[in-house]
Amino acid sequence: MIIDTHAHIGHMIGFNMKESELLYSMERYGVDFSLVSNIEAAEFDHKGRKIPAILQKKQNKILRRTLEIVRRNPQKLGALIWLRLFSELPDGETERLIEENRGLIYGIKLHPFHSRIAPDSERAEAVYRLAAEYELPIVSHTGGCEEARSVHLYNAAKKHPELDFVMVHMDLGTDNSEALELLGRLKNLYGDTTWVPVKTTVEAIKRYGGEKMIFGTDNPIDGKDTLLRNKTGDRSLYQAYFNELRELICEDDYELLMHKNAERIFKLKAITKS
């Protein structure tokens, strides 16, 4: 069983991640279930420039589109609500969409790099109130700018022990050392493997046990064969997770990483059993 807790759909900032590509990739590379968020919720580009308003969409419209795709594939896909914290806060319609589609929604996605709002900012408190009401974990990008440093997510997790928080990337583009250190300080803080070297994941499991990491990929960010090779044609990092990692950790820890931790954090057991 493999659960990918960090996959995408949507067309924005140079990416065009299609439903068909994601489903093809899952079938081709043995991923049983993916949690998806919609890249069209990005508010800033990769250089920190505000995306022109004419190219942006309201977050509730984006959520409805995400739910349409998940509703077609409920045994394969689940929704993560990507909230646009710079421009919007969750409103009554957001809450109504959650209430009406709670069986399809498994968490809330923050992206401090593409929103330029830190998870420990006062603005994010409205998100945590919503997450607590509906018992939804918080999944957040880390890395790339000050607002996205893992310490800000750590601060939010420390303030809100009633919620689970996932550090996606564990500080993308770094040696992961700060995120790795923070990971062990809080029971409700987890790491995710998206573009994280296998050696970092092994070290996290060695230090803190198999319950602290979950599997994620950004699929299909490099196209339908993201899990096989990257854009340059080189072997994908995730092939090491599918293959070599099995020799580096025990089978119980491998099962926790690849699906059991996700089942627990996102309450996915009913889906994966079926």
Quick structural summary:
The chain has 274 residues and is an alpha/beta fold. The chain has helices at 19-29, 59-72, 92-100, 112-115, 125-134, 150-159, 177-183, 198-208, 237-242, 251-265, 269-273; strands at residues 3-12, 15-17, 33-38, 77-82, 105-110, 138-141, 165-168, 189-192, 213-214.
Write the topology of this structure.
Layout: E1 3-12, E2 15-17, H1 19-29, E3 33-38, H2 59-72, E4 77-82, H3 92-100, E5 105-110, H4 112-115, H5 125-134, E6 138-141, H6 150-159, E7 165-168, H7 177-183, E8 189-192, H8 198-208, E9 213-214, H9 237-242, H10 251-265, H11 269-273
Parallel strand pairs: 1-3, 3-4, 4-5, 5-6, 6-7, 7-8, 8-9
Antiparallel strand pairs: 1-2
Salient structural properties:
single chain; 274 residues; alpha/beta; nine-stranded mixed beta sheet; 11 helices; 37% helix; globular
> Rounded to an integer, what's the Rg over CA atoms?
17 Å
Task: Give the structural class.
Answer: alpha/beta
Helical run tally: 11
Shape from CA axes? globular
Binned strand content: 15-25%
Order of helices and strands: EEHEHEHEHHEHEHEHEHHH
**What is the first-to-last residue Cα distance?**
12 Å
The total strand number stands at 9
Strand order in the largest sheet: 2-1-3-4-5-6-7-8-9
Biggest sheet architecture: 9 strands, mixed
The average pLDDT is: 96
* Unreliable sequence segments: none
Portion in helices: 25-40%
